[in-house]
Design a protein that fits this description.
The chain is of the alpha+beta class. The chain has helices spanning 16-27, 40-45, 54-62, 67-72, 92-95, 106-119, 239-249, 252-257, 301-322, 326-353, 360-376, 378-389; strands spanning 3-12, 32-35, 51-52, 74-76, 78-83, 86-91, 101-103, 123-125, 129-134, 141-146, 149-160, 178-193, 203-206, 212-216, 222-228, 263-277, 280-281, 284-286, 292-293. Strand 14 and strand 15 form a beta hairpin. Helix 1 (16-27) packs parallel to helix 9 (301-322). 46% of the residues are buried. The chain binds flavin-adenine dinucleotide and P-hydroxybenzoic acid. P-hydroxybenzoic acid binds at residues 49-51, 202, 213, 215, 223, 296-297, 299. P-hydroxybenzoic acid binds next to strand 14.
C-alpha cells in the first residue's frame, strides 16, 4: 500500500534549480518536498558550471545561502580571448557601467543549498526510484519507490527541475509541447586539477586545432576544457595528452605560464542548444535544464536555471500570498523571453570560438572577420559584455 503525503509544491530533481526553488519557497513559508533519483553524493560529484551572473548571486543571497560565496567566490571584472597567438581583453566593468561576474563552482552552490535545506529541516528524498507524475492538469500526484516501498505525494503544483533527461518534460503529451534543438558536431573534454590558474582571468581560445578554455574554481584549483570530437571518451586521454593539447591551443604567454598537475576529474560534455515551449502545463512547471540547454561557451546554463527559478518562486509566492494567478500565468512567456536571448548568445559564442567540422573556408574567413570586428569595435565588445554578465530582468 502506498504511503500518501500532501505538500503544496512537489519538486522533481535536486540539482541547482530544484534546490534553489525549494529554498526560496521554504523561506516564503510554502511547504515543499524534493524528490531526487540519485544520492546526495552523486549530485555533488558532478563538475559543471563555474560562472555566476550578479542576478544569480543576488538570488542566492535572497535564499540565504551566499555567505561562503561572498567569502570564497572570485569577482571577475572581465575576460580574455586568445586568437592568432595574441590575447585580447574584454573589460566587463568598463563596458557595462560596473557589472562583474563571480567565479564559484556549481558544486559549491549545490553544497550550500543542500546544507541550508538540511539545517532548516526541509524534506529531500534522495535515491527515489521510478519517479512518475500524474494528473497535472487537475490534482497532481507524484509517485516513486524508496527502499522498495511505494510512495505517493499529492500536491497543488509540480516543479519539473529534473534536467534534460528527466521524467517531467517526457510526461507532457507530445501535442502540447514544441521543441527546438541543435546538436553541435563536437564536444568539450574538461579537466579539473589542484593547480593555480594560468591567468587571473578566464581565457577563451580560438585556435586552428580547436577551441580551448582556461577557467578556475579558486586560486589553487583550475578547470580547463579543449574542444574534442563527439566520439571522444575521457579515459582514452592521459593527463599528459590533455596538457600537451591545451598548451598547443593557448597563446604563447599562457603556454609558458601553464602549471600542470594530476587531474581530479576528467569528462566529456556534448554541446547542445535546446528549448521546449511552453514551460507550463496546467499545474506542472518546467525549470532549468528540464526546459532548455545551452552550449556552455556563454556560461549561461546555471544562470538561466536560476532565472527560471526566480520567476517561478515569485509566481508561486504571489499565488499563495496574494491569491493571484498572474505570475503563474506569465511564467512561461517571461522565462522564455530571457531563455531565447541566452540561447542566441550561447550559440553565437560557440560559433565564434570553435572549429566547425566541414564548415568550409568561407565560414572560416567569416569567423576570422567576426573576431577582427570584435577586437576592434567597442560596440561589439559591449554587446558581448552585456550578455555575458547577464541582461537585466524586465519586471
Ligand atoms: P541538473 O543539474 O541536471 O539537475 C537535475 C536533477 O534532477 C539531477 O540531480 C538529476 O539526478 C535529477 N533527476 C533527473 N531525472 C530524474 C527523475 N526521473 N526523477 C528524479 N530526479 C531526477 N553550465 C555552465 O554554465 N557552464 C558549464 O561549464 C557547464 N558544464 C556542463 C557540463 C555538463 C556535462 C552538463 C550536463 C551541464 C553543464 N552546464 C554548464 C549546464 C549547467 O550545469 C546546468 O544548466 C545546470 O546544472 C542546470 O541545473 P538543473 O538543476 O536545471 O539541472
Ligand atoms: C567553467 O569554469 O566550468 C566554465 C566557465 C566558463 C564557461 C564554461 C565553463 O563558459
Amino acid at each position: 500500500m502506498a504511503e500518501i503525503k500532501r505538500v503544496q509544491v512537489a519538486i522533481i530533481g535536486a540539482g541547482p534549480s530544484g534546490l534553489l526553488l525549494g529554498q526560496l519557497l521554504h523561506r516564503a513559508g510554502i511547504d515543499n518536498v524534493i524528490v531526487e533519483q540519485r544520492s546526495g553524493e552523486y549530485v555533488l560529484g558532478r563538475i559543471r558550471a563555474g560562472v555566476l551572473e550578479q542576478t544569480t548571486v543576488d538570488l542566492l543571497e535572497e535564499a540565504g545561502v551566499a555567505q561562503r560565496l561572498h567569502e570564497e567566490g572570485l569577482i571577475h571584472d572581465g575576460t580574455q580571448m586568445s586568437f592568432g597567438g595574441r590575447r585580447y581583453e574584454i573589460n566587463f566593468r568598463k563596458l557595462t557601467g560596473g557589472k562583474t561576474v563571480t567565479v564559484y563552482g556549481q558544486t559549491e552552490v549545490t553544497r550550500d543549498l543542500m546544507e541550508a535545506r538540511q539545517s532548516e529541516g526541509a524534506a529531500t528524498i534522495y535515491e527515489a526510484a521510478d519517479v512518475s507524475i500524474h494528473h497535472f492538469d487537475s490534482r497532481p500526484v507524484v509517485r516513486f519507490r524508496k527502499d522498495g516501498a511505494k510512495h505517493e505525494i499529492a500536491c497543488d503544483f509540480i516543479a519539473g527541475c529534473d534536467g534534460y533527461h528527466g521524467v517531467t518534460r517526457a510526461s507532457v503529451p507530445a501535442a502540447a509541447i514544441k521543441t527546438f534543438e541543435r546538436v553541435y558536431p563536437f564536444g568539450w573534454l574538461g579537466l579539473l586539477s589542484e593547480t593555480p590558474p594560468v591567468s587571473e582571468h578566464l581565457i577563451y581560445c580560438n585556435h586552428p586545432r580547436g577551441f580551448a578554455l582556461c577557467s578556475m574554481r579558486s586560486m589553487t584549483r583550475s578547470r580547463y576544457y579543449v574542444q574534442c570530437s563527439l566520439d571522444e571518451n575521457a579515459e582514452s586521454w592521459t593527463d599528459q595528452m590533455f596538457w600537451d593539447e591545451l598548451r598547443r591551443r593557448v597563446d604563447p604567454a599562457a603556454a609558458e605560464a601553464l602549471v600542470t598537475g594530476p587531474s581530479i576529474e576528467k569528462s566529456v560534455a556534448q554541446l547542445r542548444s535546446f528549448v521546449a515551449e511552453p514551460m507550463r502545463f496546467g499545474k506542472l512547471f518546467l525549470a532549468g535544464d528540464a526546459a532548455h540547454i545551452v552550449p556552455p561557451t556563454g556560461a549561461k546554463g546555471l544562470n538561466l536555471a536560476a532565472s527560471d527559478v526566480r520567476f517561478l518562486a515569485r509566481a508561486l509566492v504571489e499565488f499563495y500570498r496574494d491569491r493571484s494567478e498572474a505570475g503563474i500565468d506569465h511564467y512561461s512567456a517571461r522565462a522564455l523571453a530571457r531563455i531565447w536571448k541566452a540561447e542566441r548568445f550561447s550559440w553565437w559564442m560557440t560559433s565564434l570560438l570553435h572549429r566547425i567540422p566541414d564548415a568550409g573556408e568561407f565560414a572560416d574567413r567569416i569567423q576570422r572577420a567576426e573576431l577582427d570586428y570584435l577586437f576592434s569595435s567597442v560596440a561589439a565588445q559591449t554587446s558581448l559584455a552585456e550578455n555575458y554578465v547577464g541582461l537585466p530582468f524586465q519586471d
